[in-house]
Amino acid sequence: MRLDAAVAEWRSCRLKLAQRAVRAGEFAVDGRPRLEPKFQLVPGVEPVVELASGRSRVVPPRVHEFWLCHKPAGLICQRHPRAPSVYGLLPGESAAGAVGRLDLDTTGVLLLTTDGGLASLLLHPTSNVWKVYTATLLAEGGSALDADAAERFRAGLVMDDGATRCAPATLEVLGPASCRVRVHEGRFHQVKRMLAAVGGTVSRLHRE
Fold first, then answer.
1. Is 146 in the active site?
2. Would you say 3 and 27 are in contact if contact means Cβ atoms under 8 Å apart?
3. Listing from the earlier edge strand, what are the strands of the sheet with 27-29?
4. What are the backbone dihedrals phi and psi of residue 84, each rounded to the nearest 5 degrees, phi first?
5. What are phi and psi of 142, to 5 degrees?
6. How far is residue 96's CA from residue 98's CA, in Å, rounded to a whole number?
7. Cα–Cα distance for residue pair 81/99, rounded to 1 Å
8. Residue 33 belongs to what H/E stretch?
9. CA 44 to CA 193: how far, in whole Å?
């Protein structure tokens, strides 16, 4: 849970006022003053101390929903009043949100949760959460990928724009027209663009 949200709940005030109080150094967590409103504390474990009064409060743990689902092709990962989305797979009263997104035509594993703190942690670049994809490629005889494709993935591939360098990833060739990719970033159409940069055209993408 974010510290500013915990303070707003404790003081029964607006979130902006809570953020101002945190930045002013009015609160400590686990014995240390915290000046970042987005600081993630562990409910039920880490006490929040109001330094001026010495009052302490442990944010009670909350019950969260976690849904691990298979996303079929044809669904978007945003809430939309008209377009079919993954939220149609959940019970109507669920407030869970998707952790990251898959393209409209991409299938596979998708996590949805009401735990915003965990979602932020999983998505943050420094968390290095690996995602594994299998891709089916268009191939006209022989291999669909350049001979040095796997080496370029390991070294940190430069995207087709010539400027964006990806973090080191792995590429395992499964056959002339299929491969497995492991990445821990979440750039726009990243896997498709990485494979395009080494000669591959993706016809089907699935997250394992």
1. no
2. yes
3. 32-33, 27-29, 47-50, 55-58
4. -60, 130
5. 75, -165
6. 7
7. 20
8. strand 32-33
9. 43
- Ranges of the chain with pLDDT below 70: 140-143
Placement of tokens 């997104």 in the chain: 101
Distance, CA of 190 to CA of 162 (rounded, Å): 14
Residues 6+ apart with CB under 8 A from 140: none
Measured in whole angstroms, how far is the alpha carbon of residue 66 from the centre of its chain?
14
Q: Which is it for the CA torsion 127, 128, 129, 135, positive or negative?
A: positive
Lookup: tokens for 130:
């690996």
Residues 107, 76 contacting (CB under 8 angstroms)? no
What is the number of alpha carbons within 13 Å of residue 165 lying toward its C-beta? 6
Predicted pLDDT of residue 76: 96
pTM of this prediction?
0.74
Instruction: Identify the pLDDT of residue 160.
Output: 81
What torsion do the CA atoms of 31, 20, 16, 121 make, to the nearest 10 degrees? -40
**Which amino acid type is present at position 51?**
L
CA triplet 88, 93, 97: central angle to 5 degrees?
A: 60
| Options 103, 148, 160, 161, the catalytic residue | 103
Per-residue pLDDT, 141: 57
d(CA 44, CA 110): 28
- Please enumerate in sequence order all residues whose Cβ is within 8 A of that of 165, keeping only pairs 6 or more positions apart, or say none: 156, 157, 158, 159
Q: Is the dihedral of CA 15, 21, 22, 27 positive or negative?
A: negative
Taken as a whole, the chain contains a residue count of 208
